[in-house]
Amino acid sequence: LFEPGDVADGMVQLEGARAAHLIDVLRVAAGRQLRVGILDGPFGVATVSAVDGRTVALCCRFGTAVPARPGVDLLLAVPRPKVLQRLWAQLAALGVGRIILTNAYRVERSYFDTHVLTPVCYRPLLIEGLQQARDTRIPIVTIHRRFKVLIEDELDALSSGGMRLVADPGAPLRVAAQALAAGNERVLVAVGPEGGWTTYEQALLEAHGFLPIGLGPRTLRVDTACVALLGVVHAQHARTQSEEGVPV
Amino acid sequence: LFEPGDVADGMVQLEGARAAHLIDVLRVAAGRQLRVGILDGPFGVATVSAVDGRTVALCCRFGTAVPARPGVDLLLAVPRPKVLQRLWAQLAALGVGRIILTNAYRVERSYFDTHVLTPVCYRPLLIEGLQQARDTRIPIVTIHRRFKVLIEDELDALSSGGMRLVADPGAPLRVAAQALAAGNERVLVAVGPEGGWTTYEQALLEAHGFLPIGLGPRTLRVDTACVALLGVVHAQHARTQSEEGVPV
């Protein structure tokens, strides 16, 4: 995956880590073809035109179609740095349009000052996940320190018009599954902090259209819950958008 | 969670790391009540009877009911040690009855010699996951170096009578969802190695009743795929066993 600025007239000059990977791991030579893509742009095919010392020159042809942004967004209370670090690539691989990180009563303040919330940390991890899943659409990440302001004033502009779900260990899966089966275009899934949302936060979410969705009675770690829930939502989503158009 | 041998006449003497956790993190004193459980046994309530130096004495009362073993088993081609290390606790938390680890053509031989396949490594991680999810039933782990022998001769004794699914990036979700909706009691889910099963392996699985199940067109890392797929299967399973008895 290239940054849009990497490509000039279909030519890309790679240096550094990516060139080293091509030379040392893939052992490319002139003429070798590679699958490539532009971040938030189309896929393409690159032909190695020259390998010169530690530099690789590629000649690229890109398609015109840009993949659609994934139909699922995630609203996530900022988890422990170690957990978030593990999540970035997995979220990008599973496919999310937006990652909306929020404060909550049970989120420790110190989490906001960690490097895992800086683009210099998370952007390469997101790109790693996209490369794994063969997608070019990088999730849009926003960080919100005021939960109430986010839910009441900002959320509609970030993710509107779709279905809203909030993970709730106690909730039955049924409600949300029925709603999902109705075939909403976008889905926004909210996952709370390690200790859960407070009663006030849960009520504010429900007042703004979030329906509780359960994954059974087991309490899961935040990263496990995110991946399992995105799996369920993607599966249900794919099913309702399948050629049959009916839930099975 | 205690090992069955820890408890004598309802009394438990804790030393070492678990006593240190109670004393230094939870700061328990005599009279404090704690939720406890016996591995593969019932839940109970423990009352701290004494804290003596670095030893904690607990007086426990256990219920009579043992939680049911989770209705889902996992057949997994041995992944990279780093990936498996991350998976153990998550698998136990999501709930699996058995973890059947197998060789496959695209599994590196060296993976079998790593410490993540030894009980001394994985047992504490499984217990960590059970504690997270509040379950006592530890997954049964078996390791099989011969794929063909496992599938042809051993698998029926390990996991029989239920639905069998094999994760397949290219497969539609529909088929398996319909089969799951038929309400099978046990489900066995197979997840292949990083590079996928070979054609031979895939055919052998299908000949032994495994139906392909997809999670959409995205290629996922093995740990992400396991967690997402177990999420889907558990959700579908819970739904078909719900009071309505009809899939939604």
Q: Report the oligomer.
A: homodimer
Proportion of residues in β-strands of chain A: 15-25%
**How do the strands of the widest beta sheet of chain A line up side by side?**
7-6-5-9-8-10
Distance between the termini of chain A: 37 Å
Topology (elements, then pairings):
2 copies of one chain form a homodimer.
Chain A lengths: L10 E4 L1 H10 L7 E5 L5 E10 L2 E8 L9 E6 L3 H14 L3 E5 L16 H15 L6 E5 L2 H12 L4 E5 L6 H8 L5 E5 L7 H9 L2 E4 L8 H19 L8
Parallel strand pairs in A: 5-6, 5-9, 6-7, 8-9, 8-10
Antiparallel strand pairs in A: 1-4, 2-3, 3-4
What is the gist of this entry?
The first copy, chain A, is built from seven helices and ten strands. Chain A is of the alpha/beta class and 248 residues long.
List keywords for this structure.
alpha/beta; 7 helices; 248 residues; 4-stranded antiparallel beta sheet; homodimer; 6-stranded parallel beta sheet; disordered C terminus
Please tell me about this protein's structure.
The structure is a homodimer of 248-residue chains. The first copy, chain A, is α/β, with parallel strands linked by helices and 248 residues long. Helices cover 35% and strands 23% of the residues of chain A. In chain A, the strands form two sheets. A six-stranded parallel β-sheet of chain A has the order 7-6-5-9-8-10, sandwiched between helices. In chain A, strand 6 (98-102), helix 3 and strand 7 form a beta-alpha-beta unit. In chain A, helix 2 packs parallel to helix 3 and helix 2 (81-94) runs parallel beside helix 7. The longest helix of chain A has 19 residues, at 222-240. Mean pLDDT of chain A is 87; it is low at 242-248. The interface between A and B is large, with 38 and 38 residues.
